[in-house]
Design a protein that fits this description.
The chain is α/β, with parallel strands linked by helices. It is built from eight helices and seven strands, in the order βαβαβαβαβαβαβαα. It has one domain (8-252): Rossmann fold (3-Layer(aba) Sandwich), CATH 3.40.50.720.
C-alpha cells in the first residue's frame, strides 16, 4: 500500500482522461475515491472497473458550475465515506477559439467551467479542511496559463486565473494546516486534447501524466509540472521581451 491507502479522495472530472486514470490509481492504492463528473454512466462504468481493486470508487455525478450542487456533494461525500483528505480538482474543458470564432459566450463558458467551477469546489473544501486543520487540495491548471498563445485566449485566461488563485491562497492555507498543490500539465493524450487540430509538442501519454502527478502529490513542492521540455519552452516564451514574443507567436496564427 502507498500513502494513499485508507484515504478519502475526491476527484472531479473523473469520467474520462486523467481524472479517470487517477481515480483507478488511487483505488489501486487502497483509497476510498469519490468520483465526480457530469455523465453518470461514465462514473458507473468506472466504479465497475474498480470492483476488484483494494480501494473503491463511489460515483457522485456533478456539474461543478452549479455552486449549490457542489456544496451539497461535498457534504454528501463526507457523510457517506468520510472527511475528504485529498481533493484533486481536475474538471475542465477546452475549446480552441480563433479570432473569427471569438465570442463572449464562448469565453464565458470556459471561465465558468475551468475557473469558477474550481472555485465552487474550493469554497466548501477550504471551509471544512481549515476547520479540521488538515487536508490536501490539488488544483489542475495548465502550462497554457504561463503565457497567451493564439487560439487559447479563453482557455489560457482561465488557467492563468487558477495559477494566480493558487499562488495567492498557498500562504494562508499553509498557516491553516492545509496543503495546496498546483498541477500544470502540458499536452496529454486525452479525449480533450483530441479536439486540437494542430501539432502538440512534447505530447505525453495518460499513464505518464498519472505517474508524474502521483509522484508530485507525495512531495512537498507547490507545483507539479510536466513534461519538462514543454514547461521550459513556455517559461522561456514568458521571459522574452514582447517584441520577440509576438514575433514568435504571430507565426502560430492561421492564414
Amino acid at each position: 500500500m502507498t500513502s494513499n491507502a485508507a484515504k478519502t479522495v475526491w476527484i472531479t472530472g473523473a469520467g474520462k482522461g486523467i481524472g479517470r486514470a487517477l481515480a483507478l490509481r488511487m483505488a489501486q492504492d487502497g483509497a476510498r475515491v469519490a468520483a465526480s463528473a457530469r455523465t453518470a454512466s461514465d462514473l458507473e462504468d468506472l466504479a465497475v472497473e474498480a470492483g476488484d481493486l483494494p480501494g473503491r470508487i463511489v460515483p457522485f455525478p456533478l456539474d461543478i458550475v452549479d455552486r449549490e450542487a457542489v456544496r451539497a456533494t461535498v457534504a454528501e461525500i463526507e457523510a457517506q465515506i468520510g472527511p475528504i483528505d485529498l481533493a484533486i480538482l481536475n474538471a475542465g474543458t477546452h475549446t480552441p477559439i480563433w479570432l473569427k470564432d471569438f465570442s463572449a459566450e464562448k469565453v464565458q463558458h470556459l471561465i465558468d467551467v475551468n475557473l469558477m467551477g474550481t472555485v465552487n469546489c474550493l469554497d466548501p473544501l477550504m471551509q471544512t479542511m481549515t476547520a479540521r486543520g488538515s487536508g490536501h487540495l490539488a488544483v489542475v491548471s495548465s502550462v497554457a496559463g504561463y503565457c497567451g498563445l493564439p487560439s487559447a485566449s479563453a482557455y489560457g485566461a482561465s488557467k492563468a486565473g487558477l495559477i494566480n488563485l493558487c499562488e495567492a491562497l498557498r500562504p494562508e492555507l499553509d498557516t491553516a494546516g492545509v496543503r495546496l498543490t498546483l498541477i500544470n500539465p502540458g499536452f496529454v493524450d486525452t479525449p480533450l486534447t483530441k479536439k486540437n487540430d494542430f501539432d502538440m509538442p512534447f505530447l505525453v501519454s495518460q499513464d505518464d501524466a498519472v505517474r508524474a502527478i502521483m509522484r508530485g502529490l507525495d512531495r512537498s513542492r507547490f507545483e507539479i509540472v510536466f513534461p519538462l521540455p514543454m514547461a521550459l519552452t513556455m517559461r522561456f516564451l514568458r521571459a522574452l521581451p514582447y517584441r520577440v514574443f509576438f514575433a514568435l507567436t504571430k507565426r502560430m496564427v492561421r492564414k
